[in-house]
Amino acid sequence: MSAEPHARNPDDDRPSLTCIVLQRGDAVRVYPIGVLDTATVPVLERQLQEVREAGFRRLIVDLGGLSFMDSTGLRFALKWAEAAGHHGFEISFVPGGPAVQRVFEVTGTSGQLPFIRS
Asked: How many domains does the chain divide into?
């Protein structure tokens, strides 16, 4: 399984968020690459919904490819972690770079999310 949906910045021809999806056994790893903000969260949201609808119950979101994430990305992660508990699937997150992880640290939410090492 491999897909690359993306959102485009209206002022630029390059995608501002691309998702690469790789199946590994019974898990799906989603790699968002670029900027995760209000304009692009729907791209990642749609991608995770698609893998859930395909029947996958183990999701890994690797934040390592993000150059920026705002509070919308934080709300996205918290929402999906909560949904996993209610809907019988697993989700975990591979930490992003310092700028991305700072969002979790500053808000005190890093302990509320299932972070794993890649």
From this structure: 1
Residues 12, 78: Cα–Cα separation, whole Å? 30
Q: Which amino acid is at 75?
A: R
Give the mean pLDDT of 23-50. 96
Token duo for residue 40: 């692009």
Residues 6+ apart with CB under 8 A from 40: 7, 16, 17, 32, 34
Q: Residue 53's domain is classified under what CATH number?
A: 3.30.750.24
- By residue range, what is the domain housing residue 80? 6-112
Chain centre to alpha carbon of residue 38: 13
Residue 1 lies in a domain: no
- pLDDT value of position 4: 46
Instruction: State pTM to two decimals.
Output: 0.87
